[in-house]
Amino acid sequence: MMYAFLERHRSDLIDRCMGKVAARPQRAVTEAQLANGVPMFLEQLIRTLKAEDAGRQGESVEISGASGGDGLALSEIGVSAISHGASLLSLGYTVDQVVHDYGDLCQSITDLAFELNAPFAVHEFRTLNRCLDNAIADAVLEFCSQRDVRVLERHHDETRERVGFLVHELRNAVATATLAVSALEMGNMNMGGATGAVLKRSLSSLTVLINRAVDEVRIGVESDRTAFSVASFIADAEAAARLDANAVACELSTLAVDSILHIYANRLTLQAALANLLQNAFKFTHDHTAVKLAAFARNGRVLIEVHDHCGGLPIGSVEKMFAPFTQRSEDKSGLGLGLAIARSSVEADFGTLSVRDVPGTGCVFTISLPLHEIKR
Predict the structure, then answer these.
(1) Rounded to an integer, what distance in angstroms lies between the CA atom of residue 158 and that of residue 314?
(2) Phi then psi dihedrals of residue 11, to 5 deg
(3) Directed axis angle between helix 38-53 and helix 76-90, to 10°?
(4) How far apart are CA 226 and CA 56, in angstroms?
(5) What span, in angstroms and rounded, lies between the C-alpha atoms of 88 and 33?
(6) What is the Cβ-side half-sphere exposure of residue 338, based on CA atoms within 13 angstroms?
(7) pLDDT value at position 73?
């Protein structure tokens, strides 16, 4: 009887399956991987064979399912196979490895029976194949179903983040334009001055953001990168930032920048990144303190620094600050995307964005970009 053979050689069969699993590339046998796999399937197969040998066909179907997977209710083997398929997905395995796990047992049974010259009846092999067929089908179905759900969730998260980035940048540009209009109205100034220039740049940024979104919907586009003066870049950033600083009664101090310094980057996205850093500084800097903006060259790179007086950072919060949808304050009016967008924009131009804690004082955000040599 096959069930007697399986009971007698159960440990040997499990060891053989474990050896086959361990021999495959990038596989390791774990308790989690085996929990609803070979050992449980083997126990259910033995019970199925016993039920059929005793003529209890209904019990056999309850344990292992009908031939061809017919039936509305899941069998015991089906329930275990579903758990096994989900477990393998969570462990990072592939769908072919799900099939291999059950195939290993079939091969091990066949090999051991041949070695020991153990004869089995045709109907017993038919039952073995039915159990394997149902288990593999249910395990693969669950594996693929959960994998598809994860892919959809990841796609949803990526889409949400991209839309969030666009909304954040659009709102920043609108906010700056609104402040510029308010300043022009209150000061009865004309459009030809510095505040008018800020308004024009903000409207230009809005146009670029909207056009870029349209292009990405169509085919996707790469950032436009050009060489430009760091001094003029900082001057533009300062002009826009002063409107934000005045709105929250914060002082902004900007150090002189060497006129020979140039970088090669996407000016608009980099300007948005720096604006995010400055807005973040204005938001967290304590009253009656200043935010400092500086740019200088060091070791072949241009460093743009924003110093604030937030009082220092909580332990372990440095890298978390750059995670999307992370907010440090009780003010939840924003999306928590400013620093994430800033880092993404800087990295798109082959740069880095980091933060250094100054305990008891504040922190320093540093944009580091390759220094661009101007041919003369």
Answers:
(1) 28
(2) -65, -40
(3) 170
(4) 79
(5) 6
(6) 21
(7) 57
| DSSP secondary structure string for all residues of 226-260 | EEEEHHHHHHHHHHHHHHHHHHTT-EEEE----TT
Tokens at residue 141, please?
């179905």
Question: Quick one: which of 204, 208, 267 has its CA closest to 235?
Answer: 267
pLDDT digits (tens, 9 = 90+) for 116-140: 888 888 888 788 888 877 777 777 7
Indicate the pLDDT class of residue 37, thresholds 50, 70 and 90: confident
Both tokens of 95, joined, read: 């769908």
Task: Please give the C-alpha separations between residue 67 and each of 128, 131, 133, in angstroms, as whole numbers.
Answer: 11, 8, 8
Q: Is the dihedral of CA 203, 254, 313, 319 positive or negative?
A: positive
DSSP 54: T
Question: Rounded CA gap, 347 and 75, in Å?
Answer: 53
* Type of residue numbered 361: T
Alpha-carbon separation of residue 356 from 177, 205, 272 (angstroms): 31, 29, 21
d(CA 367, CA 238) in angstroms, rounded, equals: 16
Query: DSSP H helical segments within the chain, as ranges?
Result: 2-8, 10-23, 31-34, 38-53, 57-64, 76-90, 95-115, 122-187, 194-218, 230-247, 267-284, 338-348
Q: Taking Cα atoms as reference points, which of 289, 309, 291, 290 lies closest to residue 363? A: 309
Residue carrying structure tokens 């031939």: 67
Q: Six-digit token pair at 321?
A: 């600050």
Question: What pTM was estimated for this model as a whole?
Answer: 0.45
